[in-house]
């Protein structure tokens, strides 16, 4: 009796795996960026940096970087191609606001804003997320 295995059928099923994994990984990153902005983990050293937010909340450290929500709400996901996605933040007050929060800023008069790199976690975790998704895809469809 011959032995037969439907490898070609499995290959067709797996053919779209990379696109599905990429899309799921970008969904994960989209959520992780939001979680990092909302996380109460950001240092803002010194008593002089106590802040009264526009909503009246007094915050010291650690803190989230939500404030008015403009930065969080400005997040856009721009799918350039099937394998290229850009995430963009403006902060609502223009391009500079998001970069000041993310990268920090030292003004000419000495004002200092510490960097709060809210994208770092997703960038560091993405390879293991993709690996997990690929393994799941292979086990499920392979």
Structural class: alpha+beta
Residues in β-strands, percent: 5-15%
Helix content: 40-55%
Total DSSP helices: 5
Gyration radius from CA atoms, angstroms? 21 Å
Q: Give me the strand/helix succession.
A: HHEEHEEHEEH
Shape: elongated
Give the overall average pLDDT: 83
Q: Can you list the strand order of the major beta sheet?
A: 1-2
Quick one: how many beta strands? 6
Distance between the termini: 25 Å
Please outline the major beta sheet: 2 strands, antiparallel
Low-confidence stretches: none
Characterization of this structure:
This protein has 142 residues and is an alpha+beta fold. It has a domain at 16-39 and 69-137. 46% of the residues lie in helices and 13% in strands. It has five helices and six strands, in the order H-H-E-E-H-E-E-H-E-E-H. Strand 3 and strand 4 (84-88) form a beta hairpin. Helix 2 runs antiparallel to helix 5 (120-141). It is elongated.
Brief digest:
With 142 residues, the protein is an alpha+beta fold. It is 46% helix and 13% strand.
Topology at a glance:
Elements: H1 7-15, H2 17-38, E1 51-52, E2 58-59, H3 70-73, E3 76-81, E4 84-88, H4 95-103, E5 105-106, E6 112-113, H5 120-141
Antiparallel strand pairs: 1-2, 3-4, 5-6
Helix pairs in contact: 2-5
Notable traits:
46% helix; two-stranded antiparallel ribbon; two-stranded antiparallel sheet
